[in-house]
Amino acid sequence: MSFDYIKEKKILLVDDEPDILEMLISILKEDGYSKIETAATAAEAFRLCRSHQPQIAVLDVMLPDEDGFSLFGRIREFSDLPVLFLTARGEDDDKFKGLGLGADDYMVKPFLPLELTLRISAILRRCYKNEAAYVTLDACSIDFTRAEIIKGQDIIALTAKEHELLSVLSRNAGRIVTIDMLCEALWGDNPFGYENSLMAHIRRIREKIEANPSRPVSLVTVKGLGYRLITKEVPR
Q1: Was domain 134-229 assigned CATH 1.10.10.10?
Q2: Where does the Response regulatory domain start and stop, copy by copy (predicted)?
Q3: Residues forming a β-bridge with 148
Q4: Where are the domains of the chain?
Q5: Contacts of 100 (CB under 8 A, 6+ apart)
Q6: How open is the CA angle 63-39-167, to the nearest 5 degrees?
Q7: Residue 94's pLDDT band (boundaries 50, 70, 90)?
Q8: Do you find a cis peptide bond into 213, omega within 30 degrees of 0?
């Protein structure tokens, strides 16, 4: 069976009704999505968008501490992740306001499970259609769909943490990714104390991808800040 890359995307569900969240999780898991996070308030959703960098958010308009439109505006100040508004309010003004702000889609409760999954699938395929599944480095290539490194005649498997780490670096190829961002991507809300573990993962990755791990040219350290992945397509 072919690998469907969109099912690996991280989804953030934001709704203050526990029953709705449970239903959404069930629908998405049934359709094959596994990376799902939830928030019941705008404050929690904002924090997760900053720290966990989801690839799509399903956002309720009516939240207890802030309306979804305002939250969407604050998210847009630092992220362009796709957003699907989901609400019980069906007024045209709300729909036009959400879409006018730049949301990717808008659904009104109640809805059919198939409609939700089809809309999410369509958004993800549209927004991430150009995302590289195969990256070429100086001494090897990375096949993210198989979690493998192709280095000469050798095929080297990636662990789950190595795959996640390289995915974050690849999405930001050529740019500095801070130590804090990488720790949050790998270990979640409480990344403090994981710096040594991160360095160990970086060392093992370099052993797999570099021609000379002691003189890395693809996964380079930016002293005091973090790391940068240099692909063949990104100028050095």
Answers
A1: yes
A2: 10-124
A3: 143, 157
A4: 5-127, 134-229
A5: none
A6: 135
A7: low
A8: no
Task: Find all residues with CB under 8 Å of 114, minimum gap 6, and list them.
Answer: none
pTM more than 0.85: no
Contact 209, 140 (CB under 8 A): yes
Distance CA 88, CA 192 (A): 39
Pair of tokens at residue 200:
């160990």
Q: Is 34 exposed, middle or buried (0-12, 13-18, 19+ CB in 10 A)?
A: exposed
Amino acid present at 9: K
At 61, list the tokens. Answer: 């308009």
Structure token pair of residue 122: 């369509």
3-state helix, strand, coil in the chain (%, to 5): 40, 20, 40
State whether residue 16 is helix, strand or coil. Answer: coil
Reported as a single tens digit per residue, the pLDDT across 107-134 is 888 889 999 999 998 898 888 765 667 8
Q: Indicate the DSSP class of residue 66.
A: S
Fold of 5-127: Rossmann fold (3.40.50)
CA 225 to chain centre: 21
| Mean pLDDT, range 120-149, rounded to an integer | 84
- Read off the tokens for 40: 């019941």
